[in-house]
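Take one protein record:
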Amino acid sequence: MIRILHTADLHLDAPFTQLGDKVAQRQDDFLKTFERLLTLAIKNEVHLFVVAGDLFDHSRPDSALVGRVQAGLKRLADRGIVPVLIPGTHDNVIAADSVYRRHEFPGTLVLQAPSVEEPASLSVQGTQIFLYGFAYRSSVSEGALASMQRRCEEGLHIGLLHGAREGSPEWDYRKKDVPFNLPLLKGLDLDYVALGHYHEFEILADEGRIWACYPGSPEGKRFGENGPRYCVLVTVEARNARVEKLVSNTRTLEERTLDLGGCPGDAEAAAAIAALGSGDLLLRLTLTGVVEAPLDLARLRALLADEFFHLDLVDRTGLFDSRFARRIENEQTVRGLFVRRARERIGAADPEERLVLEEAFREVLVRFHAFGGGTP
């Protein structure tokens, strides 16, 4: 029996350009998450620390960051924990100056051949461990997945695969991906396959046993990777694996909806949004309901700058029946004419067209309000 800390898709050195002046801080969050994974590996006395691809967000990460990673992996190796890596789609080895060609990772097994000629072998507490993994290159990796076939009966056989599972909710096959399905994995006859590439946790089980697992991204990289994020602690025996989720993230991403129906203005909207606030939260908030006046999103973000680590506001509020729209509808002006005709068009639209028209209507009324429309 061996214990593995299995993670993937850390995406260290991701750019996060949408975060403005918090880019460096968010990049540091990801490094903290990497270091938390190291601590979890030590705390749980694992034998292997497995990263199933995309440790880095691209193939040429910052040299200082690489140094931090090298030091962290050596920290494990010095404690008798063997780090095992495969390149992924982001940190691939296609370029001659890719990170795994330019840098050594002392004490770490980096499985970067285009296919498995022979599995890497090591002994853990008297048990022979065989490790199967490759760095996919479409031009030279034909048959690479089949090359992960179990070679012998003795010992424990662990696969590492950065691949795209057919039928997954995340399925979006591209030429640089390695497609697979569960029957194919079962045919490899490995004791456990450590998966990477898809960012949501998923266990692949059949016939009463776990064959493989996606741990998901240990830190949310983008909205959709919401809530707690995980690595997994895996206990592997001959043709048997047990998986335990361990929370790993530094900050949390969430997507929520807030009904601002009847809200009279920005100050009241800001107060309602602030009630959801947390300094560690990255929140995408969709605002709904019929408000009494157009919302100034730039002003709201400024008012709420200290309430969240990052706030992304999506305005889906309605102004079609607001007091502001009804008031200017009666004006004998260009904007009054616009509101009358727009309300007629929206009232006659089908549901799908209405969404588009209401968004355009809201955008124009926001501009009317900003340039002297006043509050109702």
Observations:
- Residues 252-373 form one domain.
- The longest strand covers residues 278-288.
